[in-house]
Design a protein that fits this description.
alpha/beta, Rossmann fold
C-alpha cells in the first residue's frame, strides 16, 4: 500500500483529530505517534532513523494509507518525494498557542520519564531516546525551552512546506476549517456529523501527572522498607 496522504505539520496542531478524520474518510490506518509508541517494530525503525540509518519508507509505512504528527512529519519532504502521488496536509495553529500547548504536554512528558522506568523497559527507553533525538535535539536544536527559537522553527517549517510542495498537492489546514476543505482536497464526500475534535491535551496532562508520580515511586518504596525495618 502506497502512502496517499503525508502530514507535514508538527505535533499539537490538531494531528490526532486529523488522524481520526482521515481514518473516518477511508485513509486507514493513519500513522501517528500513538501508532509508534505501541509497536516495537515502529519504535525500532524510528530509533534507527533518528540515529542516521537510511529509512525503508515502504517498510515503515506498511499497512498505512496516511500519516501525520511526529516522528513522520520531521521527514515530510523525503516521504512526499518517495510517494510522488501522495497529497500533503500541513496542519497549522497560532504559533504562541501551539508553543504553550507543547510546553504543557508533550515536552514535559517525554523529558520526565524516570530513569528506573526506562531501565525496566527497553522499548520505552528507545522510544524516549527517539523522541528526544528527533524532536527536541534535532528539530529544535536542544533549545525548545527558548520560546522565540521554538516558534521560529515552527514558522520556518510552515514556510518550507509551502515552498517545497506544489500547490495542487498541498492543503494548509486547521481543525477549525472542518470537513469541507479537507474532503474537497482529498476528493471524497463530506461525511455526516461534525469534524472530530480529540482532546489529546487532557489525556497528556493526566499522563504527565502519572509520570511525575512515578519519579517518586522508588523513594516511597525505600521509605516503606526502612519504616518496616525500624518499626
Amino acid at each position: 500500500m502506497a502512502l496517499q496522504v503525508v502530514g507535514a505539520g508538527f505535533g499539537r496542531t490538531g494531528t490526532l483529530s486529523l488522524k481520526t478524520a482521515l481514518e473516518q474518510l477511508g485513509f486507514s490506518k493513519c500513522h501517528h505517534m500513538q501508532e509508534v509508541t505501541i509497536s516495537s517494530k515502529q519504535v525500532n525503525a524510528w530509533h534507527a532513523i533518528a540515529h542516521g540509518e537510511a529509512p525503508d519508507w515502504d517498510d515503515v509505512f506498511e499497512g498505512y494509507a496516511s500519516s501525520c504528527d511526529w516522528p513522520s512529519c520531521t521527514y515530510w519532504d523525503a516521504i512526499q518525494r518517495h510517494y510522488p502521488d501522495s497529497k500533503v496536509i500541513l496542519t497549522i495553529r497560532d504559533p504562541d498557542r501551539w508553543y504553550d500547548s507543547a510546553m504543557e504536554t508533550i515536552y514535559p512528558v517525554s523529558n520526565g520519564v524516570p530513569q528506573w522506568l526506562k531501565w525496566l523497559s527497553p522499548r520505552l527507553r528507545k522510544g524516549v531516546d527517539m523522541i528526544c533525538t528527533t524532536i527536541w535535539e534535532g528539530t529544535f536544536d536542544g533549545r525548545f525551552e527558548d520560546r522565540a527559537h521554538a516558534i521560529e522553527v515552527f514558522n520556518r517549517n510552515t514556510e518550507q512546506v509551502k515552498a517545497g510542495v506544489s500547490p495542487e498537492r498541498l492543503l494548509v489546514f486547521q481543525a477549525t476549517d472542518g470537513w469541507e476543505p479537507l474532503c474537497t482536497f482529498l476528493g471524497v464526500p463530506v461525511p455526516e456529523g461534525p469534524y472530530p475534535h480529540v482532546n489529546e491535551a487532557a489525556d497528556l496532562k493526566r499522563l504527565l501527572k502519572v509520570v511525575r508520580a512515578l519519579r517518586w515511586l522508588p523513594h516511597a518504596v525505600v521509605a516503606l522498607v526502612v519504616a518496616w525495618i525500624v518499626f
